[in-house]
Prior knowledge:
The chain is an alpha/beta fold. 32% of the residues lie in helices and 23% in strands.
Amino acid sequence: xxxxxxxxxxxxxAYRAADLARELMRGGCTVRVCLTPSAEKFVTRVxxxxxxxxxxxxxxxxxxxxGRMAHIDWARQADLLVIAPATANILNKLAAGVADDMLxxxxxxxxGPMLVAPAMNxxxxxxxxxxxxxxxxxARGVEIVQPAExxxxxxxxxxxxxxxxxxxxxxxLALIGWTRSLRGRRVLITxxxxxxxxxxxxxxxxxxxxxxxxxxxxxxxxxxxxxTVVTGPTxxxxxxxxxxxxxxxxxxxxxxxxxxxPAADLILAVAAVADYRVAEPSRGKIRRTAEDLLLRLxxxxxxxxxxxxxxxxxxxxxxxxxxxxxxxxxxxEKLERKGLHFIAANDVxxxxxxxxxDENELVLIGRQGPPERSGTxxxxxxxxxxxxxxxxxxPG
Length: 396
Ligand SMILES: Cc1cc2nc3c(=O)[nH]c(=O)nc-3n(C[C@H](O)[C@H](O)[C@H](O)COP(=O)(O)O)c2cc1C
């Protein structure tokens, strides 16, 4: 039984949330409703409490169980947060992280998958602020059920009508189905760059930001996995809920990941591991002289190939190939040579995707079948796209 928190906001379409609650219950969910104070002008607590058999929250300090903070309890217990209808106001508050009523406070405390179904006047929807908020929410992995075009309650024609209840319910149930596919699985992710010291203050590294690894960790958590991230120094922290091991060099990454690998069902080697390290890093700081400075580099261990050797039978190993070309031959060769089950290639020469950016485009190559292309997606959507595919290769 999945726990859904259904947030209802101050739109004239609020009455349709009653049918949505019923539809989700028919789909096997326990539904708990949180109204905003504005929504309570349109619909009542009694309506939802009678329909769902659960308490309905409105005010930030409502506490059905004395002594427990309901906003934290509900956020922790939810498998999915659906906000339908979602006003322009709640979208802009979610994007900005405002928590000034019970619903927005639950949303801020909640770390799982979220679905929002906006409903509003077409001008409010087209407003730059609302559009910017929608873009920010999509980049964080929030799924949007787009409002339909037609005549809205205020008599205007345009996009803004709440999507149909069946469309919202099926998107919600699909998200719940998706969130189950890694339940009980252990996922190991290597992420970020490594740093190979030159002396006590300098190092060799690369442009990996760790964003793709963090997105994969978040998506895997949403899918119910137990996630460990072994990460080099990154600009984005791995998500709350993942256990994190911080490392600097390729050798440290291999040592830390090797401890986790034998228990992992799925290994995602996203880290951009330096191929070479400085043979003899200087203990102090190298000083400038008039002479040339030669650094001798020696090969680092091949982390993903080593992890493949110690992985348990049936574990699925996925490598990443950031290549400055869309020629897949290099990625295919890596797949074979390193004994991977899949390799996800991305063309880092293309502006706007790959290193440091918020979007990515992957080509997933398996041992059988033609390569699949994700198209350009936010990194979290890309992570979800990839995990859905590789999860199918896990033994039942
Ligand atoms: C009759 C009426 C209908 C409204 N319908 C909508 C709507 O469909 N979408 C919307 O974004 N705002 C709508 N509003 C404005 C919101 O109720 C208002 O912005 C409110 O502050 C939203 O609060 P909430 O987001 O906390 O529920 C409506 C207001 C009124 C008076």
